[in-house]
Amino acid sequence: MKKGLLIIFSGPSGCGKGTVLKEILQDDSFYLSVSATTRPPRPTDIDGVDYRFLSIDDFQQRIDSNAMLEYAEFCGNLYGTPADMVDKMRAEGKNVILEIEVEGALQVMKKCPDAISIFLLPPSLSELERRLRNRGTESEEVIRKRIQRAEEEIKLAYHYRYLIVNQTVDTAVEDFRAIIRAESRTYHLNQEIIGEILSC
Ligand code: 5GP
C-alpha cells in the first residue's frame, strides 16, 4: 500500500482552518491528527476527539519520552502532535493532516522534508479580528494575545510551500484539494506507473 501524505496546515487562530478542514475531512482518505494540549477544554471540546487534554506533568513526560513529533507553546499553553498515530495512519495509506501553529510546523518541516506545508491566510487582519470576536469563546485578553500572535505567524508564512487566502470556504477548499491532487501525482510518488505502462 502507498504511504499517505503528511500535510501541515497552519494559519492564525480564527482564520477558518476548522471550517476548511470539516469539508476536506468528508473524504475519508484524510485523517486529522488529534493533538495533545494543556489548554483547558472549551464547552464544545470533546477529550480524545478535538484534543487529548493533558496536565502539564503528563505533557512533559511525553516530551521526555520522545513521544511527540513536535510541540510548542501557544498563548500560555502547550500543544503537541503524538507521533504514533501519525506513523500508523500514514502506513495505512491515509493522508495525515497536522493542524498546528508555526513553531511546531517548522520542527516537522525539518524532521520530515517530504511534508506538504499549507498556510491559510485571512483576507485581512481586521477580518480576522472580527471572526475571533464572533466566535465568542475567548476572553478579551486572550483575543488580544491571539491577534498579536496572528501578526507574528503571518510574517513567518514564507516558510510554507503553499499559501491559501480564505476569501470564501469554497475557494479555500478547492485550493486545498488542488494542492493535494497535484502533490499526489509527483514523479517521486508514482515511479512504478512507468514500469507498469511499459510492461503492457
Ligand atoms: P486552539 O487553542 O484555538 O485550539 O489552538 C491554538 C493554536 O494551536 C492553533 O493555531 C492550532 O493550530 C495550534 N495547535 C493545535 N494543535 C497543535 C499541535 O499539536 N502542535 C502545535 N505546534 N500547534 C497546535
Low-confidence parts lasting 5 or more residues at pLDDT below 50? none
Number of helices: 8
- Classified in CATH, the superfamily of the domain at 6-33 and 94-199 is P-loop containing nucleotide triphosphate hydrolases
What is the radius of gyration?
18 Å
Q: What CATH architecture label of the domain at 6-33 and 94-199 applies? A: 3-Layer(aba) Sandwich
- CATH structural fold name of the domain at 6-33 and 94-199: Rossmann fold
Largest β sheet strand count, sense and barrel closure: 5 strands, parallel
Amino- and carboxy-terminal Cα gap = 21 Å
Provide the spatial order of strands within the biggest beta sheet.
2-7-1-8-9
User: How much is the average pLDDT?
Assistant: 95
Give the helix/strand layout.
Layout: E1 6-10, H1 17-24, E2 30-32, E3 36-37, E4 52-53, H2 56-64, E5 68-74, E6 77-82, H3 83-91, E7 95-99, H4 102-111, E8 116-121, H5 125-135, H6 140-155, E9 162-165, H7 169-183, H8 187-199
Parallel strand pairs: 1-7, 1-8, 2-7, 3-4, 8-9
Antiparallel strand pairs: 3-6, 5-6
Helix pairs in contact: 1-7, 5-6
The structure holds guanosine-5'-monophosphate (5GP).
Residues 13, 35, 39, 70, 72, 74, 79-81, 99-101, 103-104 line the site of guanosine-5'-monophosphate (5GP).
Describe this structure in words.
The protein is of the alpha/beta class and 200 residues long. It has a domain at 6-33 and 94-199: Rossmann fold (3-Layer(aba) Sandwich), CATH 3.40.50. It contains 8 helices and 9 strands. The strands form 2 sheets. A 5-stranded parallel β-sheet has the order 2-7-1-8-9, with helices on both faces. A 4-stranded mixed β-sheet has the order 4-3-6-5. A hairpin with a 2-residue loop joins strand 5 and strand 6 (77-82). The longest helix has 16 residues, at 140-155. 29% of the residues are buried. The structure holds guanosine-5'-monophosphate (5GP). Guanosine-5'-monophosphate binds next to strand 5, strand 6 and helix 4. Residues 13, 35, 39, 70, 72, 74, 79-81, 99-101, 103-104 line the site of guanosine-5'-monophosphate.
